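Long-time lurker, first post. I've been practising inverse folding by hand and with some scripts of my own, and I keep getting stuck on stretches where the structure tokens seem ambiguous. Below is the full token string for one chain I'm working on. Before anyone asks, I'm not after the true native sequence, just a reasonable design that respects the backbone. If someone could post their per-position residues I'd love to compare against what I wrote down in my notebook.
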């Protein structure tokens, strides 16, 4: 319930604060179609990079303990609930706020790496309740940075939602394997279909 509330606040805040400057349109947030294979290529590259960073740090330092893991052990229903939140809801809400709004706003005044690093740090800070280990927070921060770079390169909200959903689906397999895989695949399919229906539009990123 708290996760649902938080996700609602993220989306509402993004739309509200964006409206202070101008009436927000869908393409301002990256809701647009982009060249399919180029977007797929950059998305796969970003996912592989983020997964590699996670595996390398966890194996190197031997840390793999989260509050989400404990929640998933309570019952099968809890595991399904976690999969729904982290694979379906969180990727949409967090990418709308952190990439399509927060990073995009920073990019009007900052360079790519500065805006990416700041967004990554803020993104990690909101996950403190889930990841108590500093190493895991470092992974989340790195994830946030790579997501910003992917958004910068593609200008597509669907690309970052897809990588976020896939990343979280892999992390949720140990909690609820069937819901994680099914919801993850459906999210990827939705990103492809909805992006194609969105139609072409200007990139949301500044020149």
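-- Answer (accepted) --
I ran through it position by position. Result:
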């Amino acid at each position: 319930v708290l996760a649902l509330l938080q996700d609602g606040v993220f989306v509402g805040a993004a739309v509200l604060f964006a409206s202070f400057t101008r009436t927000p349109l869908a393409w301002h947030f990256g809701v647009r179609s982009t060249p399919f294979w180029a977007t797929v290529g950059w998305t796969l590259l970003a996912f592989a990079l983020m997964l590699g960073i996670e595996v390398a740090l966890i194996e190197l330092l031997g840390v793999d303990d989260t509050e989400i893991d404990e929640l998933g052990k309570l019952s099968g229903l809890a595991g399904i609930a976690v999969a729904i939140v982290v694979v379906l809801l969180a990727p949409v809400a967090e990418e709308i706020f952190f990439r399509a709004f927060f990073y995009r706003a920073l990019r009007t005044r900052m360079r790519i790496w500065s805006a990416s690093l700041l967004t990554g740090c803020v993104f990690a800070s909101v996950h403190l309740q889930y990841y108590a280990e500093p190493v895991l927070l470092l992974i989340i921060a790195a994830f946030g940075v790579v997501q910003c770079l992917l958004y910068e390169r593609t200008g597509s909200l669907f690309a970052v939602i897809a990588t976020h959903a896939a990343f979280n689906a892999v992390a949720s397999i140990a909690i609820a394997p069937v819901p994680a895989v099914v919801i993850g695949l459906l999210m990827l399919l939705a990103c492809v279909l909805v992006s194609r229906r969105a139609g072409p539009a200007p990139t949301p990123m500044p020149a």
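A couple of notes from the structure itself: The mean pLDDT is 90. The first helix runs from residue 2 to 18. Happy to go over any region you disagree with.
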